Every structure is written in C-alpha cells, then in structure tokens.
Amino acid sequence: MAFSYSSFNFLFLSSALLILSATVTSTHHFRIKEATIRDIQIQFKDEKLTSRQLVEFYLGEIRKLNSLLRGVIEVNPDALFLADKADKERKVKAAGTLNWLHGIPILLKDNIATKDKLNTTAGSFALLGSIVPRDAGVVMKLRKAGAIILGKASLSEWAHFRSSGAPSGWCGRSGQGRNPYVLSADPCGSSSGSAISVAANMAAVSLGTETDASILCPSGSNSVVGIKPTIGLTSRSGVIPITPRQDTVGPMCRTVADAVYVLDAIVGFDGRDADATRKASKFIPHGGYRQFLKPDGLKGKRLGIMRDPFFNSVTGTVITQAFKHHFNTLRKGGAVLVDDVKLSNMDIFSNVSYGEQVAMLLEFKSSIDAYLKELVVSPVRSLADLITFNNKFSKLEMINEYGQDYFLAAQMINGTVNVEKQLRKIFEKFSREGLEQLMRKKKLDAVVTPGSDISSVLAIGGFPGISVPAGFDKKGVPFGICFGGLKGSEPKLIEIAYAFEQATNVRKPPSFKP
C-alpha cells in the first residue's frame, strides 16, 4: 500500500495537533505511544496487549500523520497476518524462549530488501515493481527474532546519492519528509524517514543505513537514538549500496535500550557479506550487547571532548548552555573528561573528505550495477539505465528541479583499481594517525562531539558512533550528542550512551510546530 501525498496545509496541521492532544490508544490503561520494547513485552507477558493491537495502533498513527510527515513509503499488507502469527506463537512457546523483538513492529529504510509484498526502491520510481532475490541479511535475522516487518520508511532518495541539490528527506515516491518537532526544520538524511517515523510513534523501532552521517544526523535532528555500527558488524547483503567500504546498517529508536535490543538481533556473520561480517564478528561480545545497559556506565570512562573544530562551531546560547550542563552530567556520572582533544591531522581533513567523495563515486557504479543485475525483475539493470530512466521520466521524479549530478559523475568518472587502492591507503593512514592515535595516546574510551559533526571521521575509519538526544534549540528543533570510538567499541559506547540518557532524559514526544 503506497501513500499518496498532497501539499501541506494548516487545516491538516490543526487536525494533527488535536490528534496529539487526544488520549492515545490504550489497552487496559497501557499507553502504546512512547512505549519501549521492555514495556511492550511486559504487557505481552501479562496478556494485556497483543501484537495485533500494537500493529493496529501504529497503522492508525500512520494513517493520521503520514500525509503530514511523509516518513513512511509503504506499509506491509501482511502486517496484521504477521501480528496474529506472533500472538499464536506467544501462546504455545515457553516463557523466556522468545527474542525481545518477538511481536515488535519495525520499519525498514526503503533501501533494505524484503522478499515479500513490499517494494524496495531507495525511494525512486525506477525500482518500483522490481523483485529482489531474497531478504537482506539483517531482515533474515529480524524475521528469525520474530519481529514484524511493518513497512518501508522514506529516505533521501538513493540514500542522498543521486543529487547534491535535493534537500534531506526528499524522495520521488513519497515527497518531502518533515521533521515532526518543527515541520520546517531539516529532518536530515538519508535515513530521515526512519527517524521521523519512530519519533512520531508511527513504529516501535526502525532500521536505517549510514555511509556518512545518514544514521547519526537524522537521529540528532529528530530526537531519537541512532547506532552507527562498526563496518561489518551488521550485514549489508540485500542493501542498495553506495560503497561497501563505508555502508553499514543500524537501529534508530526512541531509547538506547530499544536500539540495543535491535542491534543484538541483527549483528553477526552473513555468508553473502562474508569478508566484512567475518572480520567484525570477533567484536561481538558473548551474551550480546544488552548486558551493557548500565545506569552507572559512565563511571571510570575517559571521554575526549573535541572542541576544535566540532564544539567550537556550536552556535546559540541554548545549545551552548545545554552542552555545558551535559559535561557536568558526564562528570557527575563518574566520567573523566579530557578536554579539548584534537586530531593531529585535522588540517588535512578537507582533502581527505574530498577524497572520500571521489572514492564513493568510483565505488558506487560497480556496487549499484552488481545490485541491479542480481534483481529477479527490474526495469533497470545498471547506473546507465537509471540515468536514462530519470531523463525519460523527469517530470515524475522532479529531475528538472534537483538533477542527478552524483549519478552522472559516477557514470563518467574514470577510475582504476590503483586509484581506489591509493585512496584506501590515504584513509587508513588518516584514521591510524588521527582518531586511533588520539584515543590510544590519551587512553580514551570515547570521543564526544555535538550532532553528527564527526561522522566523516567515523565513516572513513569504519568506526562506530551513537547519537543520543541532547536538547532542543530556541525554535524547538532537536539536537543530539555523539559518542564515537574505535572498531568494536560498541560495548563502551552503549554503557556511556545509556548512562547519559538515564541521567538526562532529554527526549520528549514531537510538538509538530509549523
């Protein structure tokens, strides 16, 4: 079921505000809105809530809010059938044998393949009606855990890698995604729909993908928690690619705990992404990540505050005061703050960032061609076909307004294996002499930056990061705080992020300001 969209009007905004002020659908006085996975599972156990009731609630919220927010492209026509199936399984299986995600509805970014009645299109009409050969690796794991695939979230089309001129959150199939806190604010991309939908309670949890900032940025901008995992910790098989060197899949949820439950379900080896997932599997702790949800997780942690250039670029009295307060919170929690740490090679960062763009253009063509050729049915089979499609259907896709300069550049750029190898060496040297050297020299457990400003450093190195809600500016637009670390440092980052979240409780439901 695809959702049509109409131009925004204030009559609908008024209706949405009335909806938000009304009593939220409840079962036996349990409020589903803002409920966590733990809350829901307790209600399941006490037989006060069913997966069908849960799915019906989220489908209702999508019907009410999606024409305003455009965070969802499609809902799964089998969602209620899957909910009934989960309810039956819960009745016959022994207590304690079901995964935490069992019976939980999840939205997937529309570049994550599902072998069902849903489309997988990266937000583009070019792939509408295409048929994938199988579920993405992470989707297989979600189904095994008993999660209910609720639908596909919108995104910045082609993961924001078609046009440099298109705004964050815009895609041909669903239009412009809107920030649920301040509708005119940037929802950030490219996993904007995943963040929008979870923030507005149109789903329990969601998945996004990141190549550079695409989980961390929308998480901060929409006041949700986003985990950008170490490269290879989660499989990228069946995910519409930009570059396997940087692409990763991660959870976007309302709480750190919920994100960790989802992370536990999707990590691990996948034979279709064997090299990366085999290397990263050594980082997965015995017993999973849930054990690191510790309220005292800040105690003894050494955190590097990266003022130059990240915190020095923060503007606005409200935001500045918020981070000053957060630093005190981190100290009170037992963390040691190592102030004003710097990357020794930050002076060459702009050149490295340019190299990152060149490398992505070089790697995109071969990656997308390989993905398209593997589709069972598809109207396009190569990047050249995509360009032709966009030219042919320019009015439908609004190409005349936003163009497809990334596609054209990737198609025309002349690269060789040697060029790619040279760039990889530059990136490895930058990471080794930058973040890795800094953290080891200062004996840091994590670095701290505002928003997603450190995303390129993390992306180039394949390093993990977690964004946690940190406040709202004077207009009511959310912002986040990011904790980043070296490969495999998810356990420490989770301890830090969870303890910070529990100490601050910054997040609140969206306000839908114009």
Automatic annotation (TrEMBL):
Domain (Amidase) ranges: 54-493
What PANTHER family does the database record attribute to this sequence? AMIDASE, OS04G0183300 PROTEIN
Name-wise, this protein is Amidase domain-containing protein
So which domain of life are we looking at? Eukaryota
Q: Any stretches that span the bilayer, and where are they? A: none
Which interval of the chain is the signal sequence? 1-26
Note whether Lyase occurs among the keywords.
no
Query: Does the keyword Signal belong to this entry?
Result: yes
Q: What InterPro entries does UniProt report for this protein, alphabetically? A: Amidase_dom, AS_sf
Q: Which UniProt keywords apply?
A: Signal
